[in-house]
Amino acid sequence: MSDNKNGSGGWxxxxxxxxxxPALLLHCSIGTVYCWSLFSQEIADYIGYSKGATExxxxxxxxxxxxxAAFLGNVVEKxxxxxxxxxxxxxxxxxxxxxxxxxxxxxxxxxxxxxIGIYLSYxxxxxxxxxxxxxxxxxxxxxxxxxxxxxxxxxxxAGFGAAKAIASPIMTSMLSGLGEGGxxxxxxxxxxxxxxxxxxxxxxxxxxxxxxxxxxxxEKPGIMATLKTxxxxxxxxxxxxxxxxxxxxxxxxSQEKMIFKCLGFAAAAGILSTISAIFNAGGRLGFxxxxxxxxxxxxxxxxIFILSIAFTGLVMLTQxxxxxxxxMALAILVLALVYVVNAGxxxxxxxxxxxxxxxxxxxxxxxxxxITLSAWAFAGLTGNQVASLIVRRTGVEETITYMxxxxxxxxxxxxxxxxxxxxxxxxxxxxxxxxxLFLVKPTTDKK
Length: 447
Description:
It is a single chain. The chain folds into two domains: 8-207, MFS general substrate transporter like domains (Growth Hormone, Chain: A, Up-down Bundle), CATH 1.20.1250.20; 222-447, Growth Hormone, Chain: A. It is mainly alpha-helical. It has a two-stranded antiparallel ribbon with strand order 1-2. It has 18 helices and two strands.
């Protein structure tokens, strides 16, 4: 396997061409699901529904991402070409159909057909493409980069995180440049573009030629048998800390733009959010590459949770979100919290497949990773929804005025509500740290 490891030889045996590049093409496409906040209000206005009603499309997309990964993990395990093709078709078809239903909703205001169509297209169909597309390159990367599995998976998952930063200015430009109906035109155009990108990734993606995939019953134990090679509490701990890390990340990230406005950074909210996306992507690559140097990858999760608890506790003690607008030191502390949580959120994603492979081996890693991604599905229904509920039910709304591009603007914020979200997240982070310390057994045998 010398050619596979060092990347020498022709393109058919080059690990960058057969694993890294296709992984980036797939993940940089599907990662644009996180651009939803850029156009959710515009979709709501165009089809005549509230923003709250359309928000469920994103929640459904994340839910079906996790559930399709859980149920289709065996398909990915057996045939990455089939799974990557399913991903390409479903993701692109979901985007194009979303554009079609938005177009229909524009000429049929308040139509339940348009709203349900968007749920099915963006939520279910795209969600299936997200789950299979997310899983498809991961095992392949770990097989080609066996000596730096964390770096390899971090590179791909960083593409998922960086997709928002890359696509956001493109989408913003398209929305303003395509004129009337720009919102549905954007979805149809980008659906076609992403299909080409993902299809090229599908054609290139391949496992090393000398990798022997266990097939027979004697060779390959079932998933439950594989999980039972370690105490079941070990897997419960991994699933729980993965779920909590995503839930807490979504809870804070979903409110970050409004938090920036509370701090007096309304005019720079877009730039600060882009920096958040960079930290998110950087955490995916940095934490996973760092974990390659550790005897026990679980140490990375201990660091993520300890840092998150420390910064959340400091902002709670100082009431930084409520008082940060008049105190630059506190405002910087709140920004640090947002960026630490973003980095840890990303790092949690990139480290879970390699942590699972260290504990359970490579034989059924796609299937086990897929089941673990069900945590993402449930976090997608709880993280931002619970945070929104806390903000709606607690605190007092305030109106702030700020200048942007030479014009005066107003925004309604709830500093106390955003501060109260931290109570929810710090409790969960403490639970996650306990799971990390007491349920997930250390391993020094990286498989």
